[in-house]
Design a protein that fits this description.
Length: about 280
């Protein structure tokens, strides 16, 4: 009888869990899906995933406690309360437009796509959708958001990355910049966050997150350096405001599977998801 009650309690908990769809099962998406399936984020359950390689996706989720459905990318929002977008930037609009139209909680990681489709914010207001942007590989967005309640005079971010993590970026390819055998730091870009994400769509989503928390994508200034002397993706943020001046630096350990991505990206997304059901949240 005791076991029956326990099983009933477990089933009831699963039924009440927020249905979570993971759009993209790369390094970040798979880590998020695994941890939710393992019960590390109470109140959430992975019900659907999408991936370009469905056979590989099936192998990746084969050992999950509860097998989610593998669905087409355009249908990933249909049977979910939350849609976490971890897909290539080219798929952003397909995922985002459906999630917002259906009034879902939408958690995007390809933030350059959001800048190109800011109309999604107005649509979310109409449909009841929520767009939640994780902090990602940055730190201190709470402080930036707080400062934005007053007056921010300037926000600058200096990004330094090992050359191999920047290879293949559109701006690097366009300018025919050779990063192999680089002997000294090389400034690849200096300009606005809006232009930075266009030139480096897989590298500086953090710049978009920073800009949306503070002064916007056109006023947030970004420098991107290829630095052969470092092993970690490093971001330094300088903020000057009427409430405080502050400087923050974070050095992110890269994932073995994808040198463009820091390990903290998946963890930051999990932390954002945890806030949706947690009885206590810390931070503004």
């Amino acid at each position: 009888m005791g076991q029956a009650k326990q099983d009933a309690r477990v089933n009831n908990t699963r039924e009440k869990a927020l249905r979570t769809a993971i759009a993209g099962l790369g390094t970040v998406g798979l880590e998020i899906a695994r941890r939710i399936d393992a019960g590390e984020v109470p109140g959430l359950a992975v019900t659907a995933v999408s991936a370009r390689d469905t056979s590989k996706a099936a192998d990746n989720i084969a050992r999950f406690k509860t097998l989610p459905a593998i669905v087409a990318i355009e249908n990933v929002a249909d049977a979910a309360d939350i849609v976490v977008e971890c897909a290539p930037p080219s798929l952003f609009e397909t995922i985002a437009s459906r999630a917002v139209a259906l009034g879902r909680i939408f958690v995007p990681l390809s933030l350059g796509g959001l800048l190109d489709h800011m109309e999604l914010i107005d649509q979310a207001r109409e449909t009841g959708a929520r767009i939640i942007i994780p902090t990602g590989a940055l730190l201190g967005l709470d402080a930036v958001r707080a400062a934005a309640e007053g007056e921010i005079r300037s926000v600058t971010m200096i990004t330094r990355k090992p050359p191999d993590s920047l290879a293949g970026a559109p701006l690097v390819t366009e300018k025919n910049i050779h990063l192999e055998d680089l002997k000294a730091p090389l400034l690849l870009f200096e300009g606005s966050a809006r232009d930075a994400i266009r030139g480096f769509p897989a590298n500086v989503n953090v710049a978009v997150a920073l800009s949306l928390a503070g002064t916007g994508p056109d006023k947030t200034r970004i420098e991107i350096w290829a630095d052969p002397a470092i092993e970690r993706n490093t971001h330094t943020i300088h903020v000057e405001a009427d409430s405080a001046n502050f400087t923050m630096t974070i050095e992110n350990i890269r994932t073995a599977e994808n040198p463009r991505t820091g390990r903290i990206t998946a963890l930051s997304t999990l932390a954002a998801l945890r806030r949706l059901t947690a009885p206590l949240t810390v931070g503004s």
